[in-house]
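User: Hey, quick favor. My workstation is busy. Could you predict this chain's structure for me?
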Amino acid sequence: MIKGVSRDPIPFVVEEDRNSPMEEQTIFWIKPKTGHEANQTMARYAAAGRDGRKGYRDLNVGKLDNADIEEFLAICTRVENFWFAGDEKPTKIVEGPVNLTNLCRELSSDVLIELMDASNNLSVLEAGAKKGYSSLSTSSSGKQKTA
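Assistant: No problem, here it is.
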């Protein structure tokens, strides 16, 4: 039986970090997408291009960068245990649009793509879900709370 997609964020660890010690893993709280949200994603990226001469598609890199940030903010509610470039130690919790935007700008392209792909595919998102994770729980209303 198919059921509707819950918008509750799922604690997700990217593939390259899954073999790290549990206390060192970076945890991205990712929301699964509905069909409508996938369409919104397509619209974000479509706006970054226009038809150019001779049928070629011209892409605006600035608009593509903005689409990546908007997409990241749409799917990621918080990140735990992230090491910003130049910092002496990892940041325990990264939340809020400004901080998440700064984090997004530091992600490698493969990690950003993996997060976006996971949000689009609930099976992938659940496969990468942080196992045995208990420092935060999600209430029935979908809001995160500390345990």
